[in-house]
Design goal:
By secondary structure, this protein is of the alpha/beta class. The chain contains 17 helices and 19 strands. Helix 8 runs antiparallel to helix 9. The longest helix is centred in the C-terminal third of the chain and has 19 residues.
């Protein structure tokens, strides 16, 4: 699994991506105010309006998200010949790096979603829209505009997003024609779906239903992990799509994807970021935008999904139809590494229970221990050799009191909390547990590791716990030492 720092480093590739969006665009209008009384005309709150805001919504919000990430985005959509359509076109034209192909449809109003908000809560949403199919000539203009961009050799499209809000732009015929055109151009298709018949999206690279939508489309339960996976597999089989990314609110996302050779289906459960949720408006647009941008940049499906998950975690913490900037996403990814490192430092009961679960799953558990006062390249080499000999590596860390008993006054240089945090930040280390005894014998007895690792400056008969590990079928690994590195020698140099 790619960690936050690696994902953050890959964000720069987004600047080279170009994404085309087709679908239902709308004007999102937000009316903010305060409620301090109930209407004398009926039992309803009276909103005292304080301010209003308008922004691009639906497919337009996908374009907003791409622009915020520094991704070149092009939008093909339909608006009315009205004031709302003119305002929508103005907003689209103001986005850096964006290109719009807005097509005016006579006698068809621009879709408006108007939300009334007080104290951070929506009181009411009013929609003004037409859901009927486009006139044949307008639908033809949409398809023509998309094909022209897909075949543009000077501005190659790296991914196509179908943003389907069920307003009539993406009817059955248009959807099939767009997916076919993208297939001929070798362009992946990401679908933010609507309705229950996902057979409309046959041939798409990825669909992104939420948990409820997945249940409605398949008629299957989607409460637990295995149920979501089963429903996603059924959708892949029945609808003929290559992958499903199911968004699951506080439970994160589940990605189920068919391999290119169709040999098997892979599954990833991606946990939520743990942020407080204020407003989910537009979160699906953010997911579609980041996924498509990642695929267009060549980042790959799993890592693109992880980026989308991180971005969604940010946007739901904002009020209104919000977007995520590239720098904001980078900071979040780097912060997630710190939080993940903290989560690796566990107590005795937790580490014993986790080791048992790993062993029950047939995985090889490794264990090493030490004071690790001033981490140096020799330590890093030991951890890498240890991790190469097992599936999961647990590091036992001497407490401050036990280090002082072993090393004498003035040690440790760093407190156990700092030493544990540094160890936990290493990719080769899976769990860190602090022990207060002078030796880790109690830990080894409880963990029953499959591999016990120490440096080659020890003989096997000198390694604490070697007899215990070997008695239950495990082995001892004496890792090669990197010459020229010693914590004690470093401290002497600093003191001198």
């Amino acid at each position: 699994m790619t960690d936050g720092a690696d994902l953050a480093a890959r964000l720069e590739a987004l600047a080279q991506a170009r994404v085309l969006i087709v679908g239902d665009v709308m004007l999102d209008r937000f009316v903010y105010g305060a409620v301090d009384r109930v209407s004398p005309e009926g039992p309803v709150p009276v909103l005292r309006v304080e301010r209003e805001a308008v922004m691009l919504g639906g497919a337009g919000n996908v374009l907003r998200n791409l622009s915020a990430l520094g991704v070149a985005g092009a939008l093909v959509a339909v608006i009315g010949e009205d004031a709302a359509g003119a305002r929508l076109a103005e907003l689209a034209g103001d986005l850096p790096g964006a290109e719009d192909g807005l097509i005016q449809a006579p006698n068809r109003p621009t879709t408006i979603k108007e939300r009334y908000i007080a104290a951070g809560q929506q009181l009411l949403r009013a929609d003004r829209e037409t859901r009927g199919a486009l006139a044949p000539d307008v639908a033809g203009q949409v398809l023509e505009a998309v094909c022209a961009r897909l075949l543009d050799g000077e501005k190659p499209v790296g991914a196509l997003v179908l943003s389907d809000y069920g307003k009539g732009v993406l009817d059955d015929v248009t959807i099939r024609a767009l997916i076919a055109a993208a297939g001929e151009a070798g362009c992946p298709v990401v679908v933010d779906p609507k309705g229950r018949d996902y057979g409309l999206y046959r041939g798409a690279s990825l669909v992104t239903p939420n948990r409820r939508e997945l249940a409605e489309a398949t008629g299957l339960p989607t409460g637990e992990d295995d149920e979501v996976v089963a429903a996603a597999r059924a959708l892949i089989e029945d609808a003929g799509v290559a992958a499903v990314l199911a968004t699951r609110s506080e439970r994160g996302m589940t990605l189920v994807a068919t391999r290119a050779d169709r040999s098997t289906v892979d599954t990833w459960h991606i946990p939520a970021s743990g942020r407080e949720v204020y407003d989910v408006s537009g979160a699906g647009d953010t997911v579609a935008a980041v996924l498509a941008a990642g695929l267009a940049a060549g980042i790959g499906l799993e890592d693109s999904a992880r980026l989308a998950n991180a971005a969604a975690g940010i946007v739901v913490g904002k009020l209104g139809t919000a977007v995520v900037g590239r720098d904001e996403l980078r900071r979040s990814l780097l912060a997630s590494d710190l939080m993940a490192a903290e989560a690796k430092v566990v107590d005795f009961e937790t580490v014993v229970a986790q080791a048992a679960r790993w062993r029950e799953a047939g995985l090889v558990v490794g264990f090493t221990n030490g004071c690790f006062d001033l981490l140096h390249p020799g330590h890093i080499s030991l951890f890498e050799q240890a991790r190469g000999a097992c599936d999961y590596l647990i590091v036992g860390l001497n407490s401050d009191a036990s280090v002082q008993r072993l090393k004498g006054a003035g040690r440790p240089v760093q407190a156990e909390a700092a030493r544990a945090a540094v160890l936990a930040s290493l990719a080769s280390v899976d769990l860190v547990v602090v022990f207060s005894e002078e030796t880790p014998i109690k830990l080894i007895e409880a963990l029953k590791p499959d591999v016990l690792i120490k440096g080659a400056d020890y003989r096997e008969d000198q390694v604490v716990g070697a007899d215990i590990v070997k008695a239950h079928g495990g082995r001892v690994l004496l890792a090669e030492l990197t010459p020229g590195h010693s914590t004690s020698e470093t401290i002497r140099k600093l003191s001198g």
